[in-house]
C-alpha cells in the first residue's frame, strides 16, 4: 500500500505513478470467464453427454417398443394360422375317414348317411354333403332323407373336378351356401371306387365357426384380426364379421396376402394399419393381425415424451443447482472485493458465514489480514502525524534555540546599560558630564535593541550549520526519498501523486536539509489543496544547464495576493496556526547550497514551487533504486 513516489528514473517517459489512494478499479478481473460461466460450462459438459446418452436410450426404448408391437402382431397372426390349420386338419381327418367307409364303397347311401350323421357330431356346426361326379347331391345331412336335393354350386362342382384330377383334398373357399343360407366353407375329399372317381364328399362348416379362433376378446385395443381364403375373401373378421364375411378384403392386404411379413395397409374402413400377414401352407389362406398405426406410434411417442421430459427436468435441475452453487461462491467473492475496496479507504467490513468451508476460511483469513492491516495503518498514520508535528516542533525548536542564543548577548548588554542609566539618574549633581554619559548609554541601549532586531532577521543563517555535512548524492534518489516521505504522510488525504524523476545527475548537498525543503513544499501543497475538489501533485526533476531543477506543482488554492511578494520572508503566513517560517527556511537552505527557489501561479489554478541546485557530475552518483510500485 505504499503510495509510491514512483521512481521510474531515467527518461521523462512515465507520466503516471500509481495513485496514492487508489480506488477499486472498474475491471480488475481482466478477461476470462467468471465462476458463474465456468460452472455453467461444467454443467453443460456433464449433462450434455448424459442427455445424449439418455436420448440414445430413449430412442432405443422407442425402437424396442415398436419392435415389441411388431412381434406381438406377428406372433398373434402365426398362432391364429395354426389354430385355423388345426381345425382344417380335423375336418380333413373326419372327411378322409368317411371317404373310406365300406357303405360308401358298396353304394349303401342310407347306411352312409347314418354313419355321416354320427361323424358330424364331432364337427361343431358342420354337415356332410355327398355328390356324384356330375355335381348332383346324393346325401345332405342338412336336408332330411328322402327330400329332393339340389346340385352343387358351380364353384364347388369345379373344386370337385379339380380334386378328382389332383386326387387331393380340396379346401373350399368361402361361398354362400344355398342350403345353409350362410357363408360356408369346408373341405372336399374325392372318393374313388375301383380307381374311378365315384363321389365328391364335402365336410361343410359355416364360415362363422372360424370366428371363435380370432380370440378378439383378448386382443389389445386397436387390433383387427381377419382370415381370408385363397381368393382374398373374408372368412372371419374380428370387427363387423357378419356384414363383411365373404366380401373381398382390403386391396392393399390382398395384394400382399401370399407372402409372410409386415405390410402397411389400410383397413376396409380406411384406417392406416400395420398388418402382420401369415400364409397357411395347408390351406393357402392368410391370417392378418393389424394394429392401428396411430395407436402404435402413440405408444412410442408416449415413451419418448416421458423419458424426454425426465431428461429435460434433470438438466434444468442441474442448471439450477449450478446457479445456486455459483451464487454461494460468487457472493462471498464479491463481498471480498467490496471488503478490499473498503479496506483501501481505511474502512472494515464484517463477513457472515457462508457454510462453504473453503470460502469461510478465505473470508476469515482476509478478515484477519484486514484487521492487522488496519491496525498497522493506524500505527503508521499516528507516526506520520507525529512526524508532521515533530517537523513543526523542530522548526520552532530551531528558531527558539537560535533566538535564545543570539538574543542573550544584546539583552544582557541592554540590562547592564539600563542599570548604568539608573545609577546615573540617582547621581547628584546630574551635570553635563553625566548627561553625556547618559546619552552614550541610551545610544548603546538603542544599538543593542537594533542588534536584537537584526538577530531575528538573520535567524535564517542558523540553517547553514549543516554545511560541513554535505555529500555528493544522486539528485533523483534524494528527491524521491523526500517525496515518498511526504506522500506517505499524506496517504489518507485523497491525493494523487505523479512523479517524473530524471536520475542522471549528482549534487553536493546536505541530504537532510534538501529533503526538509521537499517535505516542506509538499506539505504546503497538500495544505493548499485541503478544500480543492481536484487534489493532484506533480513532482518533477529535470537536469539541464549544469543544474537540477525540481518542481512541485499542486492543484490547490493558489498564492494569496497579499503574501505573494514576501512569500519567503520569515513569519509570512496566511494560515491561522501557521508560523511563516517554512518557506524562509527553505530559501535559506537552497541559497546556502548555491541554488535558487521561487514560486509561480498556475493559470488553471494551483501553484508550482521550483528550486535549482548545481550539478556536480552528470553521471549517476550511486545506484538507482528499483522502481517502486
Ligand atoms: P506556514 O505554512 O506556516 O504558513 P510557510 O512559510 O511554509 O509558512 O508558508 C508561507 C505562506 O505561503 C503560507 O501561509 C501560504 O499562504 C503560502 N503558501 C505556501 N505554499 C503554498 C502553496 N503551495 N500554495 C499556496 N500558498 C502557499
UniProtKB/TrEMBL annotation:
Database matches in SMART domains: HATPase_c (SM00387), HisKA (SM00388)
Annotated transmembrane regions: 39-62, 303-326
An MF annotation (GO) of this entry: protein kinase activator activity
Gene Ontology BP term (one): osmosensory signaling via phosphorelay pathway
Compartments in which it is found: Membrane
Record-given protein name: histidine kinase
Residue span(s) of domain Histidine kinase: 402-617
Biased composition (Low complexity): 1-13
Amino acid at each position: 500500500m505504499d503510495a509510491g513516489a514512483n521512481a521510474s528514473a531515467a527518461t521523462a517517459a512515465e507520466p503516471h505513478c500509481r495513485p496514492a489512494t487508489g480506488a477499486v478499479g472498474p475491471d480488475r478481473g481482466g478477461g476470462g470467464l467468471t465462476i458463474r460461466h465456468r460452472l455453467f460450462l461444467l454443467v453443460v459438459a456433464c449433462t450434455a453427454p448424459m442427455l445424449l446418452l439418455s436420448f440414445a436410450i430413449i430412442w432405443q426404448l422407442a425402437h424396442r417398443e415398436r419392435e415389441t408391437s411388431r412381434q406381438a402382431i406377428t406372433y398373434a397372426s402365426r398362432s391364429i394360422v395354426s389354430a385355423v390349420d388345426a381345425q382344417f386338419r380335423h375336418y380333413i381327418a373326419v372327411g378322409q375317414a368317411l371317404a373310406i367307409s365300406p357303405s360308401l364303397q358298396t353304394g349303401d347311401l342310407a347306411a352312409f348317411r347314418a354313419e355321416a350323421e354320427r361323424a358330424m357330431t364331432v364337427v361343431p356346426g358342420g354337415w356332410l354333403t355327398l355328390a356324384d361326379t356330375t355335381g348332383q347331391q346324393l346325401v345332405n345331412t342338412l336336408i332330411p332323407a328322402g327330400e329332393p336335393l339340389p346340385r352343387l354350386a358351380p364353384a364347388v362342382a369345379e373344386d370337385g373336378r379339380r380334386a378328382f384330377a389332383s386326387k387331393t383334398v380340396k379346401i373350399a373357399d368361402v361361398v354362400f351356401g344355398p342350403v345353409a343360407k350362410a357363408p360356408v366353407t369346408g373341405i372336399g375329399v374325392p372318393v374313388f371306387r375301383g380307381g374311378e372317381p365315384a363321389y365328391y364328399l364335402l365336410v361343410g362348416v359355416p364360415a362363422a365357426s372360424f370366428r371363435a379362433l380370432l380370440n378378439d376378446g383378448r386382443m389389445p385395443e386397436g387390433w383387427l384380426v381377419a382370415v381370408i381364403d385363397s381368393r382374398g375373401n373374408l372368412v372371419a373378421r374380428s370387427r363387423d364379421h357378419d356384414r363383411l364375411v365373404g366380401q373381398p378384403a382390403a386391396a392393399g392386404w390382398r395384394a400382399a396376402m401370399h407372402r409372410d411379413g409386415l405390410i402397411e395397409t389400410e383397413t376396409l374402413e380406411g384406417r392406416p394399419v400395420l398388418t402382420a400377414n401369415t400364409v397357411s401352407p395347408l390351406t393357402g389362406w392368410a391370417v392378418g393381425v393389424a394394429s392401428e398405426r396411430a395407436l402404435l406410434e402413440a405408444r412410442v411417442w408416449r415413451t419418448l415424451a416421458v423419458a424426454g421430459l425426465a431428461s429435460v427436468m434433470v438438466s434444468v435441475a442441474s442448471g439450477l443447482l449450478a446457479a445456486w452453487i455459483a451464487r454461494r461462491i460468487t457472493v462471498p467473492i464479491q463481498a471480498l472485493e467490496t471488503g478490499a475496496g473498503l479496506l483501501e479507504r481505511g474502512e472494515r467490513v464484517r463477513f457472515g458465514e457462508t457454510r462453504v468451508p473453503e470460502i469461510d476460511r478465505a473470508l476469515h483469513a482476509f478478515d484477519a489480514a484486514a484487521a492487522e492491516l488496519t491496525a498497522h495503518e493506524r500505527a503508521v498514520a499516528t507516526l506520520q502525524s507525529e512526524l508532521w508535528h515533530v517537523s513543526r516542533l523542530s522548526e520552532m525548536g530551531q528558531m527558539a534555540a537560535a533566538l535564545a542564543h543570539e538574543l542573550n548577548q544584546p539583552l544582557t548588554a541592554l540590562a547592564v546599560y539600563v542599570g548604568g542609566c539608573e545609577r546615573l539618574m540617582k547621581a547628584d549633581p546630574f551635570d553635563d558630564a553625566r548627561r553625556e554619559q547618559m546619552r552614550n548609554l541610551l545610544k548603546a541601549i538603542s544599538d543593542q535593541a537594533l542588534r536584537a532586531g537584526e538577530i531575528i532577521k538573520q535567524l535564517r543563517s542558523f540553517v547553514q550549520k549543516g554545511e560541513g555535512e554535505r555529500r555528493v548524492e544522486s539528485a533523483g534518489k534524494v528527491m524521491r526519498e523526500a517525496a515518498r516521505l511526504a506522500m506517505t504522510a499524506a496517504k489518507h488525504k485523497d491525493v494523487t501523486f505523479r512523479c517524473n524523476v530524471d536520475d542522471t545527475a549528482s549534487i553536493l548537498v546536505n541530504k537532510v536539509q534538501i529533503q526538509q525543503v521537499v517535505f516542506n513544499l509538499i506539505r504546503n501543497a497538500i495544505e493548499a489543496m485541503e478544500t480543492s475538489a481536484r487534489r493532484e501533485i506533480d513532482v518533477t526533476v529535470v537536469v539541464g544547464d549544469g543544474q537540477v531543477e525540481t518542481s512541485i506543482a499542486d492543484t490547490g488554492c493558489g498564492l494569496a495576493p497579499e503574501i505573494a511578494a514576501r512569500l519567503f520572508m520569515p513569519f509570512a503566513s496566511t494560515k491561522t496556526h501557521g508560523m511563516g517560517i517554512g518557506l524562509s527556511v527553505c530559501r535559506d537552505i537552497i541559497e546556502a547550497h548555491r541554488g535558487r527557489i521561487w514560486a509561480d501561479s498556475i493559470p488553471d489554478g494551483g501553484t508550482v514551487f521550483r528550486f535549482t541546485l548545481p550539478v556536480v557530475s552528470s553521471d549517476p552518483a550511486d545506484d538507482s533504486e528499483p522502481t517502486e510500485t
